Amino acid sequence: MVTVIDETVIMRYLLDDDRKLSKLACEVIGTGEALTYPEIFARVAVSLRDVYGVPRSLIGAALVDLLDDITVAEEDVVRYASRLFGTTTLDYVDCLLVARNALRGLHVVSLDKAMMRKYL
């Protein structure tokens, strides 16, 4: 049975900072039936960066590795966005936008001139 998980499960799984909750997160993810969405990855990236002070490069790598354990909608987009997040100063949501543009060939309009020149 597929189980949809949110950022609280992923955070406990990655941080292993609460014996009881981290164990539960590992059990849920360990079933191989955990599913989540790109926006949840965005929330995890922002929390790790802003609340826990984890370096972007480590966040990007951890999120890419997490794709081995969790099914995520648009995995190719999330993989690309996570790598991009780890190597740029773009916000994770912008990384999703850039990744979708690159992988799907969608026409994107942004008023962020730097992003348009460099990534879109």
What can you tell me about this protein's structure?
This protein has helices at residues 7-15, 19-30, 38-50, 56-66, 75-87, 92-104, 113-118; strands at residues 3-4, 34-36, 71-72. By secondary structure, the chain is mainly alpha-helical. It has one domain: Rossmann fold. A three-stranded parallel β-sheet has the order 1-2-3. Helix 1 (7-15) packs across helix 3.
Summarize this structure as a short list of keywords or feature phrases:
120 residues; mainly alpha; Rossmann fold; three-stranded parallel sheet; 3 strands; 64% helix; globular
**Helical proportion?**
55-70%
What are the secondary-structure elements, in order, as H or E?
EHHEHHEHHH
How many individual helices?
Answer: 7
Quantity of strands, as a count: 3
In CATH, the topology is named: Rossmann fold
Compile the SSE list and pairings:
Blueprint: E1 3-4, H1 7-15, H2 19-30, E2 34-36, H3 38-50, H4 56-66, E3 71-72, H5 75-87, H6 92-104, H7 113-118
Parallel strand pairs: 1-2, 2-3
Helix pairs in contact: 1-2, 1-3, 3-4, 4-5, 5-6
